[in-house]
Amino acid sequence: MDNVFVEALVRALAVGTPLLLASLGAILNERGGVVNLGVEGMMAVGALAAFAVAVAPGGNLWLAVLAAAAAGALLASLHALATVTLRANQFVSGLALALLGTGAAGLLGKRYEGAPLFNKVPDWNLAGFVISPFTVFALLLAGALAFYLNSTRSGLTLRSVGENPAAADVLGVNVGRVRTLAVLAGGALAGVAGAFLALSYRASWADNMTAGLGWIAVALVIFVGWRPLRAILGALFFGVLYYLQFRLQGNSPIPTEVFSAMPFVLVLVVLALAGLRGQQGDAPAGLGRAYVRGER
Length: 296
Prior knowledge:
By secondary structure, this protein is mostly helical. The chain has one domain (2-277): Orthogonal Bundle (ABC transporter involved in vitamin B12 uptake, BtuC), CATH 1.10.3470. It contains 11 helices and 2 strands, in the order ααααββααααααα. It has helices at residues 2-31, 39-55, 61-85, 90-108, 133-151, 153-163, 165-170, 175-201, 213-223, 228-247, 256-277; strands spanning 124-126, 129-131. The longest helix has 30 residues, at 2-31. It is a multi-pass membrane protein.
């Protein structure tokens, strides 16, 4: 029983790692008032960039991770340009970037399909647990982000921009700069989530590698109430669902398709409930609204 529990925990942590990284990035975006539905695309380009650098002659794995973060941030910069500078609809921009990112990654990644990755990021053995360094980073980052948002001056500034950008502007805060930096940081984390898939979890490249994880991460932010530490439990929860999908395959009268669909069903439920609540609760008051100085 203990072995089964440990296996379930380790597998859930592994599957939950990209969800946690991507959702932490989305929390940064949305705490600053910017909705980012392009996480799926940013994860995809991050995965491709990481794999391309890793399989290149003399490729370095940690340089590959940096390339993934840069690719995610680059795609996020388009979202920042559209939503912060040009004040375009945040939902439309995010959806467009999700399609652009996944499409571009699928097209440019054709040459890497089937290519071997001889050196994956090695796992660590911590107190008997075999765990990816990406997972350790994600867990530590959740704690650091919670501290940043609640206990630092710049974190409180970010939250004020998301809650009441006009009031923050009056106090001398550059709303556009804060929001842009938050979007770029969120995109970089989404790219690192993609790097985990390409360099650690699957250690390969395949079209549609993200398989909807980015969309689940977006919903996970709502599910955990925009709280970084709660995101750990949310990522574990979805990780357990994915683990059950494989564990019970052929060993349960319940069709495995039920477990395969469960994360996406929960995403729809979370979004539906959020719609019924009218984005109330813990959502930043200025979420999804472009800020124009002088407008109420």
